[in-house]
Design a protein that fits this description.
The complex is a heterodimer of chains A (about 450) and B (about 240). Chain A has about 450 residues and is an alpha+beta fold. Chain A has nine helices and eleven strands. Chain A is rod-shaped and about 155 Å long. Chain B has two domains: about 10-130, Response regulator (Rossmann fold); about 140-245, Winged helix-like DNA-binding domain superfamily/Winged helix DNA-binding domain (Arc Repressor Mutant, subunit A). Classes of the chains: A alpha+beta (about 450), B alpha/beta (about 240).
């Protein structure tokens, strides 16, 4: 299958080629028609004139010879019966004779092919190589036999076709250069625009795309640049707002946290501290999720096995039963504290709802998977996708006490996706949930 | 709950926070814990109090209108050996690093538990008494040993191939205690003491367990350790050459 060119330059080149071809074909048809009409005219007019002239001279006492001269008189139609006839030429000769007042009986015409380099007697030799063709015209004079004339029959065929093709090619090349230049002038700035839009990053002030190309394209680029500036300004504003929000909410939380120290009842105080801790975590998650598009931490090569191990160890230090089979060193390029946070969120979820977790590290194709499995209640299959939505509430035991699954999973997935991976959830055979964090390994 | 210090006096704290709702109850709590507490709502008044009293330790909020906590912290560090504990609203790494580079001895993230703050104040004060002088910002910078680098700001170990090896909180605290005292024999009790106070909850697990985990991460052959050596009847010693970066 031939493929339709998809680039601007390719399509323009193809379009120009097709349009030129059609125009030239029409041109060609017109020229061919014109040429054959003029050939017919030329081929019929001269012999007719000569025949009329010969008849005139014969009447003046100059007889027409049967074996020499341009016009010969013979008794029968000399054109061999097997030659293809040219009725159009015959008709034209008859019309010409009639115009000059010469009465004619039958008129016959045919083209004969002469052997190469044979000189004909009509003086119309061309000296060219190759088969030449002559027109034989026979006019019957009723009662006086036939008058025969020969005429040059020019070749209408390949020469004109070749000329036309050459002409078309020259035109095509002459047109193609400016068309491609124009296409490049349009497509290059567009490509720069596409490139910039694809890696539109929220971090920092990016350099605007250079305005180049025709005015329309410049206008698009200018509009795009202005849009980028507005988007970045809005996101900056969002970050400032979230920062202020975080600060303004943390301060009363901190005040509350200090004050509950005066609560006498130990259990009560612990419960309050937990709630404040929970609120603070949510606040942290909101801020992290909001800032994820512009991470401040660079990508470094990190041993993922050690990272998971360190997170697991922190959970064990807090007394949570988290199992992790020690894995081999596995260097991966990632943002360590963000990935640490994603892994922590998954394990935290498992510990919270499944009272413990089994963590494994497994290669999966070109990626590596951190699998966090628990034996908790799992999630109804039709709600598996929902829990990635921030602040999803499930109408089961999973969230009754804590009031929502919060942002943990949404944040974990957002972090994984930022790193080119993903987080997926599945219910396990025999009960429980399995969360899989995949990360690409380069 | 009085803390006997070297001179048998009550430690005098300067509490600097613009937020009255935090400062006042915190001052009350710390007073109950046996400290003498002077309050200041901003950097300017804090400077005045510092000049007026013999302060033993400053608890300093980073985010304040006017001159902020970091700037005041730098001023304190330039003019004295006074230990500083920062109160920070953000848990982000950059804030920690900046705070510790400014010469703070420790920090707590809001909302913090007053007990934890009190515990850290005690640890810093005890460290000051034990060492006589403050321990040159224990968390700033990096330590290099045996081709590896322990980055304290990011709490990360970079191994010989340049790959980061994340450490758990416990492992990190233990390694930090060890690289700070190379070629000294440290008993289990000493190590426990040195690693306490940072994250209070983390230390039910035995030092031996943490040591063997650390060895797996830094030793070429964990079964015959070259870097963290066991001293018979004593404890452990960090046998590698340590360079501060």
């Amino acid at each position: 299958m031939t493929r339709w060119p998809r680039s601007l330059a390719g399509q323009m080149a193809l379009l120009v080629a097709v349009a030129l071809f059609v125009a030239q074909a029409v041109n060609f048809a017109l020229i061919v028609r014109d040429r054959s009409a003029s050939r017919l005219q030329q081929a019929s007019a001269i012999p007719a004139l000569r025949i009329a002239d010969a008849i005139g001279r014969e009447a003046g006492g100059q007889p027409i010879a049967g074996d020499r001269g341009r016009i010969r008189r013979v008794d029968t139609n000399p054109i061999p019966a097997d030659l293809p006839r040219r009725a159009d030429v015959a008709a034209a000769v008859r019309a010409n004779l009639a115009r000059m007042g010469v009465a004619a009986g039958q008129v016959d015409a045919a083209v004969i092919h002469l052997p190469p380099r044979a000189r004909d007697d009509g003086g119309m030799h061309t000296g060219r190589r190759g088969p030449r063709r002559m027109l034989l015209i026979a006019v019957e004079q009723p009662g006086h036999g036939w008058l025969v004339a020969r005429a040059f029959w020019p070749d209408a065929g390949p020469a004109i076709l070749w000329r036309l093709i050459a002409q078309t090619l020259v035109l095509y090349i002459v047109l193609l250069v400016p068309v491609l230049w124009l296409a490049r002038r349009i497509s290059q700035p567009l490509r720069a625009l596409t490139h910039d839009a694809q890696r539109f990053s929220l971090g920092g002030a990016a350099a605007p795309v250079l305005e180049a190309g025709p005015a329309d394209v410049r206008a698009v680029i200018a509009a795009y640049n202005a849009l980028g500036v507005r988007v970045r300004a809005m996101l900056d504003e969002k970050d400032r707002m979230l920062g202020a929000l975080g600060h303004d909410l943390r301060t009363p939380l901190a005040a509350l946290r200090v004050r509950i120290e005066s609560v006498e009842d130990e259990a009560d105080r612990a419960r309050m501290a937990d709630i404040i801790q929970e609120m603070n975590r949510t606040l942290d998650d909101i801020l992290s999720l909001a800032r994820l598009g512009r991470p401040s931490e660079p990508v470094t090569e990190v041993d993922l096995a050690a990272l998971v191990d360190a997170v697991v160890e922190d959970f064990r230090d807090l007394g949570h039963p988290v199992a992790f089979e020690e894995a081999d060193r596995l260097p991966v390029r990632l943002r360590p504290s963000l990935i640490r946070r994603a892994v922590r969120n998954l394990i935290e979820n498992a510990v919270k709802y499944g009272a413990g977790a089994e963590v494994t590290l497994a290669p999966r194709g070109g990626a590596v998977a951190v699998v966090v499995a628990d034996r908790g209640p799992g999630i109804p299959p039709d709600r598996l996708a929902d829990v990635f939505e921030p602040f999803t509430r499930l109408e089961n035991s999973r969230n009754r006490e804590t009031g929502g699954i919060g942002l943990g999973l949404a944040l974990a997935r957002a972090i994984a996706r930022e790193a080119g991976g993903d987080v997926s959830l599945a219910n396990r055979d025999g009960g429980g949930l399995e969360a899989v964090l995949t990360l690409p390994v380069r | 709950m009085l803390i006997p210090d070297a001179m048998g006096e009550t430690p005098h704290l300067l509490l600097v926070d613009d937020e009255r709702s935090i400062r006042e109850p915190l001052a009350t709590y710390l007073t109950k814990q046996g400290f003498r507490v002077t309050q200041a709502p901003d950097a300017e008044q804090a400077r005045a109090r510092l000049a007026a009293y013999a302060i033993d330790l400053v608890v300093l909020d980073i985010m304040m209108p006017g001159e902020d906590g970091l700037s005041l912290c730098r001023h304190i560090r330039e003019t004295s050996d006074l230990p500083v504990i920062l109160l920070t609203a953000r848990a982000e790494e950059t804030d920690r690093i900046v705070g510790l580079e400014m010469g703070a001895d420790d920090y707590v993230v809001k909302p913090f538990s007053p007990r934890e703050l009190s515990a850290r104040i005690k640890v810093v004060l005890r460290r000051m008494q034990a060492g006589g002088t403050r321990q040159n910002a224990p968390e700033s910078g990096a330590y290099a040993f045996a081709g590896r680098v322990l980055k304290t700001g990011e709490r990360t170990l970079v191994d010989r191939d340049g790959v980061s090896v994340p450490l758990s909180t416990g492992e990190y605290n233990l390694l930090l205690a060890l690289v700070g005292r190379p070629r000294q024999v440290l008993t289990r009790d000493q190590l426990l003491d040195l690693t306490q106070g940072r994250e209070a909850a983390a230390f039910d697990r035995s030092i031996d367990n943490q040591i063997s985990r650390l060895r797996r991460k830094i030793e070429v052959d964990p079964k015959s350790p070259e870097i963290i050596k066991t001293v018979w009847g004593g404890g452990y010693t960090f046998a590698a050459e340590v360079t501060r970066l």
